[in-house]
């Protein structure tokens, strides 16, 4: 961050790594802040419709599900699915759709 500046898009990758580590440590609330920051950097640098934005969106949704807030996971997952459907990675699209189904099922159980 010191060399690239606080808004450089490469920082998003580092933030994503920290967020993943926080999720692995069972700290979804901490991870959420890192995913949100990464999302903001990527949207600013690449635009809100770029496929790279899907990663942090899925991370945000994962955190919301872990926090017991499936209603807050659905919108980011819907957006991630839309972005991924325009890409060339069917496996990533399938995974995001499965996560979306999981979030909807969790919400239906409430």
Protein architecture, described:
By secondary structure, this protein is mostly helical. About 75% of the residues lie in helices and about 0% in strands. It is built from 5 helices and no strands. The protein has helices spanning about 10-25, 30-45, 55-65, 70-85, 90-110. α1 packs parallel to α3 (about 55-65) and α3 (about 55-65) packs parallel to α5 (about 90-110).
List keywords for this structure.
110 residues, mainly alpha, 5 helices, globular
Computed over alpha carbons, the radius of gyration is 14 Å
β-strand amount: under 5%
What would the principal axes of the Cα set say about the shape? globular
Compute the separation of the termini in Å: 41 Å
Count of helix runs: 5
Secondary-structure element string: HHHHH
Pick out the low-confidence regions. none
> What is the mean predicted local confidence, pLDDT?
94
Count the E strands.
0
Structural class computed from helices and strand pairing: mainly alpha
Main sheet: strands, sense, barrel:
none
* Helix share, percent: over 70%
Write the SSE topology.
Layout (H helix, E strand, L loop, with lengths): L9 H15 L3 H19 L7 H13 L4 H15 L4 H19 L2
Summary of the model, kept short:
With 110 residues, this protein is mostly helical. It contains 5 helices and no strands. The N and C termini lie far apart (41 Å).
């Amino acid at each position: 961050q010191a060399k690239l500046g606080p808004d450089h898009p490469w920082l998003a990758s580092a933030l994503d790594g920290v967020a993943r580590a926080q999720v692995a440590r069972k700290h979804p609330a901490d991870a959420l802040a890192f995913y949100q920051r990464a999302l903001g950097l990527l949207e600013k640098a690449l635009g809100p419709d770029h496929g790279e934005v899907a990663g942090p969106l899925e991370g945000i949704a994962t955190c919301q599900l872990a926090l017991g807030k499936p209603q807050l996971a659905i919108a980011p997952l819907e957006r991630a699915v839309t972005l991924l459907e325009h890409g060339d990675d069917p496996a990533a699209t399938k995974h995001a759709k499965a996560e979306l189904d999981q979030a909807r099922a969790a919400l239906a159980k409430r």
